[in-house]
Amino acid sequence: MNVSSDHLRRIGLELLQAAGAGLQEAALVSENLVAAELRGVPTHGINLLPAILERIAAGQMDIPTQLKVIADELAITHIDGGNGFGQTAAAEGMRRSIEKARRYGIGFSLIRNTNNIGLLALYSLMAAKEGMVGVCACNGAASMAPWGGAEPFFGTNPFSIAVPGGAGDPVVLDMSTTVVARGKIRRAARLKERIPFGWALDASGAPTDDPEAAIQGTLMPVGEYKGYGMAFFIDLICGLLSGSSYARAVRTFHKPDGPTGVGVMTLAIDINRFMPLDHFSKLIDEHIRMIRGSTKARGQNRIYLPGEIEVEREDLNKTRGVEVDSPVVKAIDALLEKRGIGLRLGDGEVQA
Length: 352
Hints:
The chain has helices at residues 5-18, 23-38, 49-57, 86-104, 121-128, 182-190, 211-216, 225-241, 277-293, 308-320, 326-338; strands at residues 2-3, 68-73, 76-80, 106-114, 132-138, 159-163, 171-175, 200-201, 207-208, 218-219, 262-270, 322-323. It is α+β, with helices and mostly antiparallel strands. Strand 8 (200-201) and strand 9 (207-208) form a beta hairpin. Helix 1 packs antiparallel against helix 2 and helix 4 (86-104) packs parallel to helix 5 (121-128).
């Protein structure tokens, strides 16, 4: 069914508060999950709510989140996420990076001991909306083998970078270092669908189109050895350097078998320190114009900017509602009933 984004936010807010989150933190996390849905990234959306609530109920997430600043000097901040909400930790890390960038031209934060942070684009966009370059990356549970291997060792280790878009929306890249995010494999498994060959290997190292076999196996890195190299360094900075878990020590968020130990980095660069922001805006407007006007491949009538498809989906989904898979509807409605909350996803259904 298609559900209004406002209704999804309310459901997220109610469930998270019922689990012990304060109003402000529940609103932040709910907004992150719904923003992912709006932008057409349901793997990072409300389907994460059952896993979040399961971890809280099992005593494996500590909420309300208690952040601890380990170091705060010159352009850097080092934060312990307190095994709380990753969204809270990452947002605070970027907020402090932006503050540092205003003062020093650049701000860099490392966060240890946190959990799934959701949609990374939201953090890099925080900086872009302040006239800065924003970068965010994190590590995750082992799901990708080193290039040439068949044993999961690195996470999908996503990263995002965003810049102001001149007269238009900010330009933002948000991608995993694997061909697809592991959430797409889980979604295919929920819906009993096959996956394309080239996404994953099974446990023996053979290509597979079976999502269950892929979950037991390993995802393929984007760009072959290049994606592996990117995942290596993201894990090194976000995990090892931050003092968080790294490589196989990071636990999956989707099973309550201990703290995940996710590490995060956020970076903000003040464009004004290098050129006036209005001049940068004129340059990027011209840059975008030239990209759009460049020769198109056969059968193509448009060249998209990074993140532009997601912006268009967001505009469309605000009107038509967010499409929610049947298994997710059942899981969320079951949680609402269990907690005695008088709401159901269908209450916010948008009719075509």
